[in-house]
Amino acid sequence: MERRNIEHRYAIKFCVKLGKSAKETFDKIVKVFGDEAMSRVQVFRWHKEFKNGRESVGDEPRSGRAVEVRTDNNVQRVRALVSQVGWLTIRMLSNELNINRETVRKILIEDLSMKKLCAKMVCLEQLENDSKLLERVVTGNKSWFFQYDPETKRQSQQWLSPGSARPKKARMSKSKVKIMMISFWQQWVGA
After folding, report:
1. CA-CA 20 to 30 A from 171: which of 38, 61, 72, 89?
2. pTM of the predicted model, to two decimals?
């Protein structure tokens, strides 16, 4: 990509030296480079820069994050943080580690082969695995609580390595004003 941009900039600089307008320059860039042509805004910006005396076609040094810092050290840093706190978003990881968001995304998906999955509900699964679960319930109680917004499916997403078990959470329903909490106690059979 950098090489193509340099070629475009040389062509723009050449057109400026020939006295072509920004629009004429853009039309020529599109004619020569086709679908890979620089955007109109970029062509006009570079045309203005060269017209005002700029000589260099290279990028100016910039402060801030590097564009791509996909090193082994950063892969290990991302792996360590995700293993501690799996629910972090790419933006949170990027801010925490001071790494470009796209680089964090590539590290997670390409280097660590991770994907973000939502937790699945386990109530029915537990009942299917233990058909006598409800027989062991001894007593229950109910209480009303004011409105609570359970975490959304998106909020429950976590980064997981290949082969990791999907996270689990209990089913929660959003209420209008308040909710009833019912708790049950089980009878323990054993020594």
Report:
1. 89
2. 0.38
